[in-house]
Amino acid sequence: MTDLTVQRVRGAFRHYRPRSIPGASLLKQAAVAAILREGADGRGAEFLLIRRAEHPQDPWSGHMAFPGGRRDETDADSLAAAIRETQEEVGLDLQRHADRIGRLSHLMARAQGRPLPMVIVPYLFHLAPDAPVELQPSSEVAEIVWVPLAFLANPANRESFAYRVGGLSMPLPCIFFGGRKIWGLTLRMIDELLGAVR
């Protein structure tokens, strides 16, 4: 799909109805910001992804992800949590430099193959063309990369890897981008967006 522009994504999400998990307000919440910008040289839209820093106490250590994290007591709602966490992790003020396109479906958090009593709420943003180019990763972020939506949508870039947990091995879908493995909940969010655009 060579015409995956921000405008096309906006059109797809104008009437999109994301799924919600019943009773989500009674569970712990986390929120992420799926941030799009228009790529240079007519390459279409790009997603901002982070590679989480390696940390032994982080169940998602080293994973490719969208900026985000747990909702704090000081956050008015999950949207506020996504905005705050993005500012903390990559130094980007979404209130000043982006506008919200919509929301993706709720997901139950999983870590090392096990479900957690936590709902993840993904929000979709469009980064303004005049937003600061220099992002500042925090100590929680090893790397910030922009990945073209067209690359993520290309079936030729789909692979699988052997996921091992509890002595078992199972094939899971993934995409490798410059040696970085995109999989799990992040890939599910990306696939939901691509499905809505298609």
Helix content: 10-25%
Name of the CATH superfamily: Nucleoside Triphosphate Pyrophosphohydrolase
Tell me the span between the first and last alpha carbons.
9 Å
CATH topology: Nucleoside Triphosphate Pyrophosphohydrolase
CATH level-two architecture = Alpha-Beta Complex
Beta-strand content bin: 35-45%
Global shape: globular
Radius of gyration: 16 Å
Enumerate the spans where pLDDT stays under 50 for 5 or more consecutive residues.
Answer: none
Mean pLDDT: 93
Tell me the structural class.
alpha+beta
Largest sheet: 8 strands, mixed
- For the record, the CATH class is Alpha Beta
Number of helices: 5
Describe this structure in words.
- The protein is an alpha+beta fold.
- The chain has a single domain (6-197), classed as Alpha-Beta Complex (Nucleoside Triphosphate Pyrophosphohydrolase), CATH 3.90.79.10.
- Helices cover 22% and strands 40% of the residues.
- It is built from 5 helices and 11 strands, in the order αββββααββββαβββα.
- It has helices at residues 6-13, 78-90, 94-97, 149-153, 184-197; strands at 28-38, 45-52, 64-65, 68-70, 98-103, 107-111, 114-127, 141-148, 158-165, 168-177, 180-183.
- The strands form 2 sheets. Strands 1, 2, 3, 4, 5, 6, 7 and 8 form an 8-stranded mixed sheet that branches.
- The model has no long low-confidence stretch (mean pLDDT 93).
